[in-house]
Design brief:
The chain is of the alpha+beta class and about 170 residues long. It has two helices and eleven strands, in the order βββββββββαββα.
Length: about 170
């Protein structure tokens, strides 16, 4: 179960451990593995948006989550053991890197601002065709029937910056 829209930290239980495509009962420090939890605040890579990073913690035991992905309906936490050991059925805390999540959220919001500016400057025919939303950058692929001129690019940039300076309230819908 994904809890990340409401929580940055979730109490969870390890329901699976995978290393080298093999189900295991236990991993230790320095093991690269996948951990599957019964619930998680980790947003998995989806729709061009990168996954959350963070830690899975049990007392002094730590597993660094470097990536999260869907496999079927399960969210897998890809990473490595930092300290101690983890076993199937362990009660743990799943904790995302909140600053990393916030940076991704800012760039996610920026894609919406960019699309609005593109439609305002280039026309309502502009449609998103893909994107990459990461903590340090974004890429926005869109349809348009010709190259964007330097003057249009400057107007688009000014429009997005105007939206940002406007300090509009952001509403989140699920």
């Amino acid at each position: 179960k994904f809890t990340g829209y409401k929580e940055k930290v979730s109490a969870a239980k390890i329901i699976g451990i995978v290393k080298n495509n093999t189900l295991l009962q236990k991993i230790i420090k320095d093991d690269a593995a996948w951990i599957i939890l019964d619930k998680t605040p980790f947003y998995p890579e989806s729709g061009g948006q990168v996954a959350d990073t963070g830690l899975i913690i049990k007392g002094k035991n730590k597993f660094r989550v470097l990536d999260a992905k869907y496999i079927g309906k399960a969210i897998i936490h890809i990473g490595e053991g930092l300290e101690g050991a983890f076993k199937k059925n362990d009660a743990v805390q799943a904790k995302i890197d909140a600053e990393h999540r916030l940076s991704i959220a800012r760039n996610h919001t920026a894609t919406h601002l960019l699309q609005a500016a593109l439609r305002k400057i280039l026309g309502p025919h502009v449609q998103q065709q893909g994107s990459l939303v990461a903590a340090d950058r974004l890429r926005f692929d869109f349809t348009h029937f010709k190259d964007v001129s330097d003057e249009e690019l400057s107007r688009i940039e000014d429009t997005v910056n105007g939206y940002i300076r406007g300090k509009y309230k952001v509403n989140v819908k699920e």
